[in-house]
């Protein structure tokens, strides 16, 4: 006989959900386990059942059954992309650190799609993940609310959320110091300083907003205003960067602050198409790539400290904080041709 804590009568079952939705229990089961498309169940019904399940607190019922079993030792991670060194390094080091602690890591890539992120969280919980590391999610709060309802801990990594602990880079200081480095190299190499261009990211993204704030702070320190048309935030993809830059004209002796190595691919492609050589361009990039460091225009890169971020993450896994803290981890400024310095 199943254990009871006195609230079992209130917990919905798939039969309750089927009755509310006006469909069969088997259809509800297929929708909740993600196989509804194979059964040719309509998307409209799938959305209705999912909404009803969330409203009825079905995830809590799922977790109640999991709590009666032995610990799974599964720790899940959601990552947005594998196509740059930063997220690739996070995934690789996360696996190593999890196994070293006797945990079994499960990682899924969600392509910055909020629906895929939420589906991944639900699937990881269904496989008895004891904790979710939500990395770079576009809607971390939605996942945090779901995890809280299911009784599963969540920790936000890279991008913060309001209802779970968050570990992020100190994007403001990292960007300020990188912008200051680019400006100082322009002064040294060209004998003059003009406002930098800020290229890449999304205006609604926390990390981009903090980097832009640091970028502007570096200009304020030397009394240099930044024209609004030199702030270009088309997203992170190389193709969007190319399309955005096609409408712009760089003056001679320009400086560029590039917000991510993915965006840098597009910027370099555009520069190679539009300008014959690197002599009058100085740029820096937020994020580290050893090949990008070989570019002749590149004077510095801000490396996010993945090891320190993950060490902090596992500290919170092992010793949950009393409240939803936000921890900022210093970045590493890598001056091309100069020493690496923690900031």
TrEMBL record:
Record-linked SUPFAM superfamilies: lambda repressor-like DNA-binding domains (SSF47413), Periplasmic binding protein-like I (SSF53822)
Domain HTH lacI-type: 12-69
InterPro entries documented for this protein: Cro/C1-type_HTH (IPR001387), HTH_LacI (IPR000843), Lambda_DNA-bd_dom_sf (IPR010982), Peripla_BP/Lac1_sug-bd_dom (IPR001761), Peripla_BP_I (IPR028082)
Keyword DNA-binding: yes
GO molecular function: DNA-binding transcription factor activity; transcription cis-regulatory region binding
Keyword list, A-Z: DNA-binding, Transcription, Transcription regulation
Alphabetical list of Pfam families matching this protein: LacI, Peripla_BP_1
UniProt keyword annotation of DNA-binding present: yes
PANTHER family for this protein: HTH-TYPE TRANSCRIPTIONAL REGULATOR GALS, LACI-RELATED TRANSCRIPTIONAL REPRESSOR
Protein name: LacI family DNA-binding transcriptional regulator
Species of provenance: Paracoccus saliphilus
Lineage: Bacteria, Pseudomonadati, Pseudomonadota, Alphaproteobacteria, Rhodobacterales
């Amino acid at each position: 006989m199943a254990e009871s804590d006195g609230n079992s009568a209130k917990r919905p079952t798939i039969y309750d959900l089927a009755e509310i939705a006006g469909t069969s229990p088997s259809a509800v089961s297929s929708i909740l386990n993600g196989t509804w498309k194979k059964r040719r169940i309509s998307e409209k019904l799938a959305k209705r059942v999912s909404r009803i399940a969330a409203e009825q607190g079905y995830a809590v019922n799922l977790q109640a059954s999991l709590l009666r079993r032995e610990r799974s030792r599964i720790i899940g991670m959601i990552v947005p992309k594998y196509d740059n060194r930063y997220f690739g390094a996070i995934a690789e080091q996360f696996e190593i650190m999890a196994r070293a602690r006797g945990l079994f890591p499960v990682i899924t890539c969600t392509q910055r799609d909020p629906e895929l992120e939420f589906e991944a969280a639900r699937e990881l919980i269904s496989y008895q993940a004891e904790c979710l590391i939500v990395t770079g999610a576009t809607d971390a709060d939605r996942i945090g609310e779901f995890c809280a309802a299911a009784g599963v801990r969540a920790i936000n990594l890279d991008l913060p959320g309001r209802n779970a602990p968050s570990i992020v880079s100190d994007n403001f200081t990292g960007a300020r110091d990188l912008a200051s480095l680019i400006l100082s190299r322009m002064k040294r190499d060209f004998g003059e300083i003009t406002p930098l261009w800020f290229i890449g990211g999304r205006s609604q993204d926390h990390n981009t907003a903090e980097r832009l704030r640091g970028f502007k702070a570096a200009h304020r320190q030397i009394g240099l205003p930044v024209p609004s048309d030199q702030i270009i935030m088309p997203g992170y993809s190389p193709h969007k960067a190319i399309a955005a830059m096609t409408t712009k004209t760089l003056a001679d002796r320009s400086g560029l602050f590039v917000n991510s190595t993915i965006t840098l691919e597009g910027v370099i492609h555009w520069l190679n198409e539009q300008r014959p050589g690197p002599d009058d361009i100085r740029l820096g990039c937020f994020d580290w790539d050893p090949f990008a460091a070989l570019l002749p225009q590149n004077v510095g890169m801000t490396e996010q400290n993945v090891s320190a971020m993950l060490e902090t993450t596992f500290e919170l896994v092992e010793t949950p904080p009393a409240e939803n803290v936000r921890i900022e981890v210093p970045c590493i400024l890598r001056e091309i041709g100069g020493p690496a310095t923690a900031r």
